[in-house]
Design a protein that fits this description.
This protein has about 110 residues and is mainly beta. It has one domain (about 10-95). The protein has 1 helix and 4 strands. The longest helix has 10 residues, at about 10-15.
Length: about 110
């Protein structure tokens, strides 16, 4: 079985070897293996992408399959061929075409004192 971005030892190895990328304004990024991806504005990622963390503020479009350790979306994001993620947070709209696999986290409840 192939290790995923969720394995801690694999994450350390990925961080040491993989680049990070930022899209500001409007831009396009090729798919591949990344440590961190940040989209500020409107960004498109062509091809399959694997990253420890992806944060999108504005509009993001991922056209291939995505394997993301932690995905945060503020605004809107569209994922083309499916998503495998450890953590997903979305404030706005998140559209996943294809299969979605993510860990389930129960929200914290503030019961007051």
């Amino acid at each position: 079985m192939r290790p995923t971005v969720f394995d801690r030892e694999e994450n350390r190895a990925l961080s040491e070897k993989k680049p990070s990328a930022t899209v500001r304004g409007a831009g396009e990024l090729s798919g591949g293996d990344y440590t961190k991806i940040l989209i500020l504005g409107s960004g498109t990622i062509t091809g399959d992408v694997r990253a420890e963390r992806l944060r999108s503020f504005g509009s993001g479009e991922l056209q291939g399959f995505s394997e993301i350790g932690s995905l945060s979306v503020v605004g809107s994001a569209s994922l083309g061929d499916g998503l495998t993620a450890g953590r997903v947070r979305a404030l706005g709209a998140l559209n996943v075409r294809g299969r979605l696999e993510a860990r389930r986290e129960r929200p914290a409840v503030n019961r007051g004192s």
